[in-house]
Fold this sequence. Notes:
Layout: H1 10-28, H2 38-53, H3 61-85, H4 89-113, H5 115-125, H6 130-138, H7 142-157, H8 164-177, H9 181-211, H10 214-235, H11 240-281, H12 287-320, H13 330-345, H14 350-366, H15 373-387, H16 394-408, H17 410-419, H18 451-467, E1 481-487, E2 492-498, H19 499-506, E3 513-515, H20 516-523, H21 527-538, E4 545-548, E5 559-562, E6 572-574, H22 580-584
Parallel strand pairs: 2-6
Antiparallel strand pairs: 1-2, 3-5, 4-5
Helix pairs in contact: 1-2, 1-4, 3-4, 3-6, 4-6, 4-7, 4-8, 7-8, 7-9, 8-9, 9-11, 10-11, 12-13, 12-14, 13-15, 14-16, 15-16
Amino acid sequence: MTMKHSLIEWDEGWNSIQKRMNKLNRVIEGLSETPFDAEDFMMLYTTIYNMCTQPPPHDYCQRLYDKYKETIEQHITLKGWPSLAEKHEEFMLQEFVKSWERHKVRVRRMSHCFFFLARHFIPSRSLTNLEEVGLNCFRELNLRARVAAFSLIDRERKGERIDRGLLKNVMGIIVEIGTKKMDAYKEDIEAHLIKSTGEYYSRKASSWIAEESYMDYMVKAELCLRRERNIVSHYLHSSSEKKLVEKVEHELFEPLANAFKQKVSLEVKALVQQATDEASSNQDFNGAYGMQEHVLVRNILELHTNLGAELLAAFCDNLLKNDGNEKLSDEAAEDTLEKVAKLVSYMRSKDLFIEFYKKRLIPRLLFDRSSNLEHEKSFVTNLKQKLGGTFLTSRIDKMVEDMKWTQDNKTSFSEYLHSNPNVNPGLDFTVTVLTTGLWPSYKPFNLNLPAEMKNCVEAFEGFYETKTKCRKLNWINSLGTCCINSNFESKTIELVVSSCQAALLLLFSDADRLSYSEIFTQLNLDHDDLVQTLYSLSYGKYKILLKEPNTKNISPNDSFEFNSKFTGRMKRIKIPHLPLYERRR
């Protein structure tokens, strides 16, 4: 048995549909006190279903499909546009996000009511599906939102604080509305942002060149590049970083390069003209004047040579140290270093470069500041090849070899301790072995090591004897670094200290208070070295020890107490303590 329904005329059916759709819109907008319940949904769904399944000419599928689109467009025109037009920038974007969330709910619920169209009519006619129709209707609001979003980015560039979370949501919506997400991102966001960014920095460049010195200009340009990378990381796709940065570099550096080129050209022309005028006015240059000119030119060339060698060494240091500004991939770093080595081979002041390079190499290797030991080795090898393996590179080559030996023997030393548990001190420690004569001279002193450190020294000496019996180890305690877990009242903090600082702090494990004389006797340090060590722990940035009396100078009559009430925000603190050879300078 089948139930037949009476034919529904268009006006009657559409009025019924429109009435319930208006109620649905009021509920979504939060304007209705009564909910859009299951009965409302079934009545709306049934009416649409019946109007779609009636025999021709009362089959209203096409008209209902057109009305669906018209209804959504009408709602956006009457509600969406006015609500955005009343607000500006950040407030407008907040309303844009709210409108989008309501629009998604509206399209989803209306699509359920028009399900028969989606299931049967639309596929048979190859029409755009209902969800896509809803997106297309909202897409017109994209342009206004995009302009406001870019305006917000410009405000951030000027130093204002903006709602980054809101901006990220807006960018996500613009992409979501797009037909293909990445295509929409590239066309609706990336392309327009790069264009507006170029225009923004083009104006800045014109202003800065007229007002700022070259140095101040470069500082501002560097800050701009950092800011643009920051913008990408917060609300843009990572693929945009290279394009955006290249655009900023082009707009900022090309005008600077042109201005600099013009300035140099004018100055050179002026110098040439001056020389020409002087030559024509005085054809008889005497010997003295010629000699002065020769000395001047020689001094200029010498200054340029020295400066070039030092700058190139500084560039290498920046590239090779772990906290340098240059962050390159392994392949890019190797390629850059190879080019530097080739450049050095053409320099007249190769020996100067090696000296400057060595000065920066030493702290990188000794204080674990090198980002990659393989890069260090590779660069020295390139220098040897380019310079013909001369004595110039032999010293730095052996320095890197010392570090390589230490690195290669870490595993062997661990195996030695595992095989000889009776000599294992139970502490994690590493020893760096340096060849005498290669490295700077460090002040030797007979520090009385605590038992824990003595055990480490004896363990390594036993291991070293298994490697060679022809060499003697001289321990440089001034270069040692220790990690100590110190128990303060608030919490336990790991202190990174020098060997001298560690030996001094360990004295307070057995005593809360010690006099200067007691510390002096137990550590066996010179007065100057002990004063420096005590000062770093009691008057530095972190006051681990309390001094009595509380004066700036340290004297033999003072006493010291462990500061158990010390507090710090970090769980790990590095206590500054300059190596003794640096302090002497």
